[in-house]
Amino acid sequence: MTTLQLPKSKSPPPVADDSLLDIWYQPWVETTNSAVKLQRIWLETVNDALRHELDFISTVAPFYIKLTHCMTGLEGPQTPTTMASCYHRIAGDMSEATYNRMRRVSELSDDFRERIWFEL
Questions:
Q1: Is the pLDDT of residue 62 over 80?
Q2: Alpha-carbon distance 38 to 54, whole Å?
Q3: Residues of 78-91 as b/e, b for ≥16 C-beta within 10 angstroms?
Q4: Nearest in space to 88 (alpha carbons), one of 116, 114, 66
């Protein structure tokens, strides 16, 4: 007598803990990498801005020393003409330094945009 054997039904493979971790880990890493890249870009831009400010301060500091010397008479006798010429000379140097500062700051937004688009 033969017995009829039914085909064995295939049960779904057991889900390993590793595969669940892989399913969750991959999207998390992709979003985290993007966030970290954007954070790095932002920090580089802030670093550049602070460096430009320090350059400006180090450029302007000697002008204040010269102005103090002119106004206190340490560079010779004070007359209204010498004080005015000294003041105008220093004001011209200060305006040039301020112009360079503004130019650098305006370039930061363009650099920031370029860095973000490059990463995307």
A1: yes
A2: 24
A3: eeeeeeeebeeebe
A4: 66
Whether this prediction's pTM lies above 0.90 is answered by no
Q: Give the burial class of 70: count Cβ atoms within 10 A of its Cβ; 0-12 exposed, 13-18 middle, 19 or more buried.
A: buried
Determine the Cα–Cα distance for residues 39 and 23; give it in Å rounded to an integer: 25
Task: Find the radius of gyration of the CA atoms of the chain.
Answer: 34
DSSP calls for 68-83: HHHHHTTTS---HHHH
CA distance linking residue 72 with residue 66, whole number of Å:
10
Angle among Cα 31, 15, 22 to the nearest 5 degrees reads 20
Q: Which of 93, 90, 52 is nearest to 69 (CA)?
A: 90
pLDDT digits 0-9 by tens, 78-91: 788 888 888 899 89
Q: Which long-range contacts (CB under 8 A, 24 or more apart) does 33-37 make?
A: 34/119, 37/119
